[in-house]
Design a protein that fits this description.
The structure holds 2 protein chains of 2 kinds.
Chain A (H helix, E strand, L loop, with lengths): L1 H11 L1 H10 L5 H26 L5 H22 L3 H24 L8 H24 L10 H21 L1 H6 L1 H31 L1
Helix pairs in contact in A: 1-3, 1-9, 2-3, 2-9, 3-4, 4-5, 4-6, 6-7, 7-9
Chain B lengths: L1 H96 L10 H19 L2 H6 L1 H10 L5 E6 L3 H4 L2 H22 L3 E9 L2 E8 L6 H10 L4 H11 L3 E7 L2 E8 L3
Parallel strand pairs in B: 1-2
Antiparallel strand pairs in B: 2-3, 3-5, 4-5
The chains are: A mainly alpha, B alpha+beta.
Chain lengths: ~210, ~260
């Protein structure tokens, strides 16, 4: 069962890519590219992690690099989603500062091949908070038609649930990596979060094609 | 092992809590946006109703004008022209009989004058040129000057060229005329005082007179009982101008007040 969940978690990362290519012609390209960037990054990271774990090779460098790049990718997505100038400037500033801090922190503590709880946590918290901010933004502005027909409602729900579910696992990432028992019991939570995330984001991409 | 169990517990409970909170956020957003959408659609319906009301008012006003013109042509110009035709036939007969003299034509001039006057009235109803040429207050003054047995005074503080559009002036002119005509017809006043002024950023027109006058309720009752289109035309035009019409009576003086925003 454990293996099935882990494998499904990895395979689910292919779904958004399929939907993205399928929707390329009809979608708004301004938003298609950030989603493509995010989904491709996610898929590469999942396949690499899955393969490395399968051959019992240390995959923590991939995990670490994914943390850095994903924060930039989500920053790019929300930069395009929310057009407020103050928000955009703040977003660029905060993400740059956080990235620099995390790189320096990983460098100083030689965490490239070890569990980096700070990187894992921050790279989950930033998209999570941006998603809440976007939901708040949705509440204050009226959109045409039903909310469930709005693609970024689904994309944000994916981010909120996906990163929210993984958050507590990332807090204990050091202990989980060190203990096979904890990995066995807790890593499926991350895989389930990934599956839900990928299904919801695919729904958003599908809606984007319809819009 | 104990540590591992507590970590598992913390992660599981924490994840459940966060998932629950996430669902609350998502559900709340959906509900709130639904509420917003409902409010928005209600607002749109209100706007649509207002547009419909305006459209109805425009159609009513046009209908009133048409009926008035048709009535004028049918009841006044038509019979007069028929008389002229009849007379012409008689002249032909007289001419053939050798009875036609200059005296036969002596009364016809006044006949033709009446027809001209009626046609002028119709043309005036179609487009009151006085208002466009000389302004609202002046046009009202010219109209009231022609009233027999009623003394009338017009006072205006308006800079009409700046404040009133042509359409607004025409509508106000028709409203005032209708109100004066109705007052003369039903309340038998001996004098009128018509004031044009600005108060609280609004254009106000007050018609004072010593006739019986109306209250808001009696106006509605009067309009409901009336078979003519004059009063409903007043109402329609007030809607078109987004204005209000009120009636009051202080001591023996009745007054009607028209309030309209700037064009």
């Amino acid at each position: 069962m454990y293996r099935v969940i882990i494998d499904c978690g990895m395979l689910s990362s292919l779904i958004p890519i399929f939907f993205l290519f399928y929707s390329y012609r009809k979608a708004d390209h301004k938003m298609w590219w950030p989603l493509f960037f995010i989904s491709t990054l996610w898929m590469i990271s999942e396949i690499l992690n899955w393969t490395l774990v399968k051959f019992s090779i240390n995959n923590l460098l991939v995990f670490e690099l994914f943390g850095f790049l994903s924060m930039i990718a989500y920053g790019f997505l929300f930069y395009r989603l929310i057009s407020n100038k103050f928000f955009r400037i703040s977003l660029i500033f905060i993400i740059t500062v956080l990235e620099l801090f995390l790189i320096v922190y990983a460098w100083a503590n030689s965490l490239w091949f070890e569990g980096d709880m700070l990187n894992a946590m921050i790279s989950a918290v930033v998209p999570f908070l941006l998603s809440i901010l976007f939901f708040y933004n949705l509440m204050t502005t009226s959109i045409e038609g039903k909310l469930v027909h709005y693609p970024f409602y689904w994309v944000n729900a994916a981010i909120l649930i996906g990163f929210g579910m993984s958050f507590f696992t990332f807090i204990f990432i050091d202990q989980i990596i060190a203990s096979p028992a904890l990995t066995f019991y807790l890593w499926p939570i991350v895989s389930i979060a990934n599956i839900i995330y990928n299904i919801l984001i695919s729904k958003g991409i599908w809606q984007m094609r319809r819009v | 092992m104990a540590d591992e169990t507590s970590i598992i517990l913390i992660v599981v409970i924490g994840t459940l809590v966060i998932v629950l909170l996430t669902f609350v956020v998502i559900t709340f957003t959906v509900m709130h946006t639904r509420k917003l959408a409902k409010k928005d659609s209600e607002h749109k319906i209100t706007l649509k109703n207002k547009e419909l009301e305006l459209l109805k008012a425009t159609i009513d006003t046009q209908e009133f004008e048409r009926e008035k013109i048709a009535l004028n042509l049918h009841d006044e110009v038509g019979p007069l022209l028929s008389s002229v035709k009849f007379k012409l036939a008689k002249y032909k007969r007289d001419f053939n009989a050798g009875k036609l003299t200059e005296k036969s034509f002596s009364d016809d001039s006044s006949f033709i004058d009446t027809i001209i006057q009626n046609v002028r009235g119709v043309s005036h109803d179609l487009s009151p040129q006085h208002v466009v040429k000389f302004g609202l207050a002046k046009a009202i003054e010219t109209f009231t000057a022609g009233l027999n047995g009623v003394h009338c005074m017009v006072v205006s503080e308006l800079e009409e060229e700046k404040m009133l559009s042509k359409a607004m002036s025409r509508n106000l002119y028709c409203i005032i005329l209708e109100l004066i005509n109705n007052t003369i017809k039903h309340d038998t006043p001996t004098w009128f005082e018509i004031e044009f002024f600005i108060e609280d950023g609004l254009i106000k027109i007050r018609i004072n007179h010593d006739g019986e006058g109306l209250t808001a309720e009696s106006f509605d009752a009067f309009e409901a009982g009336s078979t003519g289109l004059g009063l409903s035309s007043v109402k329609s035009r007030m809607v078109l101008l987004s204005g209000t019409l009120s009636f009051s009576k202080i001591n023996k003086m009745s007054n009607t007040e028209i309030v309209v925003p700037f064009a």
